[in-house]
Amino acid sequence: MLPLSIKIKNFMSYGEREEALDFNKFEIASLTGPNGAGKSSLLEAITWALWGKARVSDDEELVHNRQGEMEVEIEFLVNERKFRILRKRTPKSSTLRLERFEKDEFYDISEDSVRETQEKLTTEILKMPYEVFINSAFLRQGRADEFTVKSPAKRKEILGEILGLSYYEELVKIARLKLRDNQTKQQSLETLLSEYSDEAEKEKDYQAEDQKLTEEIKSTDQRREKVKEDFERSQEKQTKLLAEHEALKEKRERIKSLEEEIALNQKRLAKIEENIEKYQAVIYEDKEIEENYRKWGEHDKENKELTKKLEEQRKLENKRSEIENRINAEKRKLEVEKGQLEARIDEIKKEIKTSPELKKELEKAQTELNKLNQTEESKTGLEKKVHQLKEEIAGLKNKNEAIKEQGEDTKEKLGLIEEAESNCPLCKQSLTDKHREDVKLEIEKELENRRKKWLQNNQAIESKQKEIEKTEVEINNLRRTLLGKSAVEQKIGEVENQLKQIKEKTTALEELEKEFKKKDSQLEKQEFAPLDQEMLKKIVDQIKKVDYDPEIHQRVQGELERLQPFVERKHRLDNARENLKRYQEEKKSFEEAIKKKQDEQTKLIKQEEKTTFNLKDLNQINDLISELKDQLDKIDKSLLELREKQATLKEKIKQSQKIKEGLKKKGDELKKLKEEATNLKMLEGAFGKNGIQAMIIENAIPEIENEANLILDRMTDGQMKVELETQKAKKTGGSKESLEIKITDKLGPRAYELFSGGEAFRINFAIRIALSKLLSRRANAKLQFLVIDEGFGTQDRAGRENLIEAINSIRKDFDKILVVSHLPEVKEVFPVRIEVTKDEVGSHLELKE
User: Fold this and answer.
1) Comparing C-alpha atoms, which of 80, 122, 134, 79 is closest to residue 98?
2) Among 529, 128, 562, CA closest to 330
3) Euclidean distance between CA atoms 218 and 51, whole angstroms
4) What is the DSSP letter of 811?
5) Does residue 695 lie in a domain region?
6) Residues near 650 by Cβ (< 8 Å), separated by ≥ 6?
7) Contact 835, 846 (CB under 8 A)
């Protein structure tokens, strides 16, 4: 495992701000800083990220100042493949994300849980547990003797893990599992063979019992046949008696049924005779009924004709009503239109009457507007005057500026004259006192004239300014007066518009009056709905032609009402004539049926008296059949039990025969299992601690001793030597597996505990480096990273120099070495320094080359 980079946040002494370290920038470097700055915390972050383990077991104690959340991210190489781990811890949960770098980006290869992901990381990628790492390549502060102080058995176990002996332990487990499975199968086969042997011996007993059952079944079958014959004869006799009993029962039921039928027919016959008498009484009054029914028919015909005329007249009257409604509607429409025209005419006339008043208002508004226009002209004149005055003031101000400039020039000339000595600076003539005075007087006179002119102009400006102020007051007054001009103009527009509308309406009034007269004439002369009025005349004529007389209709309906009962009596008469014949035929039919049933009844009574059936005989035969049936059921049940027992015996015989055939096969199978068990026991011993594993350790021990002694030789100038022994003598005799460390110096062999701190560290360092180099040469746990976190403080100057020399000598064996120390002479030895500092925020990392 080779680290590439690490990022730390809220881990131990490292705070909220993420700290990062790029391992690509060095091969060997010193990690320096004051005690407690966070050097060891950086190393703990590496192991916590990779294995989730650090110097304390409770992750909560690793969180910086109880921040609640911490995380470490590390990138590393294993067998030239790049991986990245992000391990987080929050108050609620812990997460582990494992990623593999492929095609320029990282891909998540985490399992479903943190535990499964950690297992994959440890066994498949790192291929070393936490204990192997800290016992070989990680010389952590206070734990350089991690390997040395462990018990011999534990040391041998760790050495086995470094050497990849866990693979052989897995083979041992597999061999044991297979052996256990083999033994289970053997035991099962042996039990089965024992049971099968006993079962095969029982076949003769099964055959004898089967023969006995066959004879018993035959005897039972014969007994069943005899009972069955008795049962069948009894059933035949029962059938005959049941038939006689059923026939007697049917005769008695028929006699009773005939008695009921005769009584019912006699009752119906009496009813028929009653109906015949009733119909004969109705037929007796047939002449009166038929005469009045004829009269009713004549009146009914007349009533229908009158009803038809009434319906026709009502249809015509409905049509007349519809036409009259349409005519009235047209009339009302004309009346409404006439009323609307009349109202419109009155409205226009009222508006026309307001025309003189509106004209007066217009004249008054126009006069007021003229005055306002004059006022606006006055305002414009005054504004022009103000503008003119302002221009004049500007001209006067310009003149005064020119006068002022000219005066300055003149003053300058005066100064030149006063300062001049020989020649006049103005005319270049010889400058005498008189000439000087003459020029000065002329200049002063010119200055006085200019001053007077400037004062005159200034007075004129002030006068014009006052006039502007006075004029602007007048302009403002006129502006206030003109504020109402727009209202006057609006008023004129409104009045003119009203007068225009009145003029237009006056023109339209003539047309409206003509239309009004037209509507009035149509109403007066009834000149509307001409088609409906013509149709109305025709309808009235048709009503007259119908010739319907309501009095006659009423008289006819009265007669119909009086004769109405004879209609019903006529129906009853017709019904009586029709039914009388039918009832007479039914009477004859019922009389014959009663006679026939009475004869049958008499005959059945005589047959009943002659029967010989005895119910006691039937009961006796029923009891006998029930008894025989019980016997048959018992025999059948017994036969079924015997046959089932025989079938079971035959199955046992068949099974015994199969067992005999399978005994040899199972015996051969057991023999093979025993041979396989012998081989598995041999493999278990070969793969075990005393087999191949012991051989590998025995072969590795010289390599570790040589490597450790080479390093000790450099650090102690050949004064110290390490020897490792894998066997230890027992007090009871013999030896046991162990890993003893023997150390020899110039004083001879001594126990490890008797060496000083500096000497002990050299021993620990040499053994740990030897283990690390051994690990780096093993394919199952390739190590490229070495950390040395203590030891320099325990060495004297010569010891430190030897230790540094030893580190440099193994430098080529590791891709990355990190040496932790706070000693100045150690810090400066290595080309790259990682400085660790700490403030109130937390620890910080800085790489210095």
Assistant:
1) 122
2) 529
3) 84
4) G
5) no
6) 210
7) yes
Supply the CATH number for residue 526's domain. Answer: 1.10.287.510
The whole-number pLDDT of residue 779 equals 43
Classified as helix, coil or strand, 84 is strand
Please state, in angstroms and rounded to a whole number, the distance separating the CA atoms of residues 714 and 58: 41
* Core vs surface per residue 260-283: b (16+ CB within 10 A) or e: ebbeebeeebeebeebbeebeebe
Which residues make Cβ contacts (< 8 Å) with residue 607, sequence separation at least 6? 251
Pairing mode of beta strands 28-32, 816-820? parallel
- CA distances 844 to 18, 81, 600, Å, are 9, 29, 133
692 vs 178: CA distance, rounded Å: 19
Distance CA 74, CA 56 (A): 20
Q: Report pLDDT for 59.
A: 84
| Per-residue pLDDT tens digits for 555-588 | 888 888 888 887 787 787 777 777 777 777 777 8
Any idea of the CA torsion for 254, 255, 260, 266, to the nearest 10 degrees? 120
DSSP notation for 317-369:
HHHHHHHHHHHHHHHHHHHHHHHHHHHHHHHHHHHHHTHHHHHHHHHHHHHHH
Tokens 């770098």 map to which residue? 101
Nearest-5° angle of CA 674, CA 677, CA 683? 150
pLDDT at 6: 96
DSSP E strand boundaries for 441-585: none
Residues 6+ apart with CB under 8 A from 709: 721, 722, 766
Range of the domain at 341: 308-548
When divided into structural domains, the chain yields a total of: 1
User: Is 518 inside a domain boundary?
Assistant: yes
Which pLDDT score is estimated for 766? 82
CA 496 to CA 365: how far, in whole Å? 11
pLDDT at 784: 79
Cα separation, 795 vs 788, in Å, equals 14
Kindly give the parts of the chain with pLDDT less than 50: 779, 781
Nearest C-alpha neighbor of 780 from the set 178, 175, 170: 170
Say how far apart CA 412 and CA 406 lie, in whole Å: 10
Tokens 């049509």 correspond to what residue? 319
Dist CA 579 CA 138 (whole Å) = 133
- Spatial neighbors of 184 by CB under 8 A, at least 6 apart, are none
Query: Is 32 contained in some domain?
Result: no
Instruction: Quote the CA–CA distance of 420 and 442 in Å, as a whole number.
Output: 16
Q: Which residues pair with 101 in a beta bridge?
A: 106
3-state secondary structure of 184: helix
Using the Cα atoms of residue 755, residue 758, residue 761 and residue 763 in order, give the sign of their dihedral.
Answer: negative
Distance CA 283, CA 149 (A): 147
Q: What is the pLDDT of residues 346-357, one digit of tens each?
A: 887 777 777 778
Residue 61 lies in a domain: no
Instruction: Say what the pLDDT of residue 455 is.
Output: 93
Q: Note the Cα 728 to chain centre separation in Å.
A: 69
**Residue 606 to residues 247, 254, 255, 387, 601, Cα–Cα distance (Å):** 14, 13, 11, 164, 9
| 69 DSSP 8-state letter | -
- Sort strands 735-745 and 748-750 into parallel, antiparallel or unpaired: antiparallel
**Cβ-contact 693, 156 below 8 angstroms:** no
Distance separating alpha carbons of residues 432 and 411, to the nearest angstrom: 20
* Largest Cα–Cα separation, the chain: 212
Helix (H) or strand (E) holding 826: helix 824-827
Going 673 to 679 to 681 to 687, the CA torsion angle's sign is: negative
Rounded CA gap, 133 and 44, in Å?
A: 12
Q: Please, what is the end-to-end C-alpha distance for the chain in angstroms?
A: 24
Instruction: Show the DSSP H helices in 526-549 as ranges.
Output: 530-546
Contacts of 192 (CB under 8 A, 6+ apart): 666
Backbone angles phi, psi at 57, to 5 degrees: -85, -20
pLDDT of 418 reads 75
Task: Tell me the residue type at 813.
Answer: D
Instruction: Please report how many Cα atoms fall inside a 13 Å half-sphere around the Cα of residue 655, on the Cβ side.
Output: 13
